[in-house]
C-alpha cells in the first residue's frame, strides 16, 4: 500500500504540489481506509498526530486530491460527503442501518454504458450505482 501512496504523491509533485506531512497523512489514511470516511472522520483520526491541523485543511486537501483525479467524493443524500481513494471503476453497497459502504465490481456494467451510447448517441462519461441493504453486522443484531 505504501508504494501506491508514494506513486500518488510523486504524481502530485509533477503538478507542482508541495507534499506536506498533512497531505501525506490524509492521502495515506484514505488509501488504507476501506470505510469511505467523511472529512470529519479523517480529521478525528489524524488530529492526535497533527494537533494544529484544522477540518478546513482536510477539506482543502480533499478538494485538491479530487481535482487531481486521485479521490472521488461520494454524496448520498442526507449524510455528509464520503471520500474514496479507489478511483477504479467500481460501485457501492450501502447499509441502510449503519451507513457502512462496501465496494463491488461488476464488469458487465460497461455493456450498459456502451448500449446507452449506441441507443442515445450520448458519450457516456461515467456510471454511478448504489445498492442498498443491511450489512452482515446489522443483520445479526
UniProtKB/TrEMBL annotation:
GO terms for molecular function: DNA-binding transcription factor activity; transcription cis-regulatory region binding; zinc ion binding. GO terms for cellular component: cytoplasm. Its cofactor is Zn(2+). It is found in: Cytoplasm. Keywords: Cytoplasm, DNA-binding, Manganese, Metal-binding, Repressor, Transcription, Transcription regulation, Zinc. The keyword Transcription applies. Binds 1 zinc ion per subunit. The keyword Amino-acid biosynthesis does not apply. Its main location: cytoplasm. Zn(2+) binds at residues 95, 98, 135, 138. It comes from the Bacteria. InterPro entries: FUR, Fur_C, WH-like_DNA-bd_sf, WH_DNA-bd_sf. Signal peptide: none annotated. GO terms for biological process: negative regulation of DNA-templated transcription; regulation of secondary metabolite biosynthetic process. Belongs to the Fur family. This is Peroxide stress regulator PerR. It comes from Paenibacillus pini JCM 16418.
Amino acid at each position: 500500500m505504501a508504494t501506491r501512496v508514494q506513486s500518488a504523491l510523486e504524481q502530485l509533485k509533477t503538478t507542482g504540489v508541495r507534499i506536506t506531512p498533512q497531505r501525506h497523512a490524509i492521502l495515506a489514511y484514505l488509501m488504507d481506509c476501506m470505510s469511505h470516511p467523511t472529512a470529519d472522520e479523517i480529521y478525528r483520526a489524524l488530529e492526535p498526530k497533527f494537533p494544529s491541523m484544522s477540518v478546513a485543511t482536510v477539506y482543502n486537501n480533499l478538494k485538491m486530491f479530487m481535482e487531481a483525479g486521485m479521490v472521488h467524493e461520494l454524496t448520498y443524500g442526507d449524510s455528509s460527503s464520503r471520500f474514496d481513494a479507489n478511483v477504479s471503476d467500481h460501485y457501492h453497497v450501502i447499509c441502510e442501518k449503519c451507513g457502512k459502504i462496501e465496494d463491488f465490481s461488476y464488469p458487465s456494467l460497461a455493456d450498459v454504458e456502451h448500449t446507452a451510447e449506441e441507443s442515445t448517441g450520448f458519450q457516456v462519461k461515467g456510471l454511478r450505482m448504489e445498492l442498498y441493504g443491511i450489512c452482515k453486522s446489522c443483520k445479526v443484531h
